[in-house]
Design goal:
The chain is mainly β. This is Orphan protein.
């Protein structure tokens, strides 16, 4: 997965329960949408060691309900975080006021940098 500044990142979220292993990856419960600003992208450019992980609390994000069972979640308070593990591997976690937890599948990623330099062709 390539990440670049001011681009949207959408991660599918699944209710964390006993059936999560058998869920269809194409049928999430929710989708977490966040725009990668400069600060967030800088945080995602880390590669923690095998024993570490980085948790990044999201202040600005949108939540899209895919499974109508969870439509009331939009009316409740909730909190989202991106988790970065060694690899780097990115995942998201969302929790609500009723202590339901939703997680995204882990995604291997490598941030790319656009420094605004153009390559000259000869």
């Amino acid at each position: 997965m390539e990440l670049s500044q001011n681009t949207p990142l959408s991660l599918p979220l699944f209710l964390l329960n006993d059936e999560i292993e058998s869920r269809d990856i194409e049928a999430p419960d929710l989708v977490l949408n966040v725009v990668l600003d400069e600060t967030l992208l800088a945080n995602l450019c880390q590669n923690p060691s095998a024993e570490e992980s980085v948790s990044i609390t999201l202040d600005n994000y949108q939540l899209e309900v895919v499974d109508s069972t969870f439509s009331k979640l939009l009316e409740q308070s909730h909190q989202a975080q991106l988790l970065l593990n060694h690899g780097p591997v990115l995942s998201a976690v969302l929790s609500d006021e009723t202590e339901q937890v939703f997680i995204s599948p882990p995604i291997e990623m490598m941030p790319t940098f656009d420094l605004g330099e153009e390559v000259e062709e000869e």
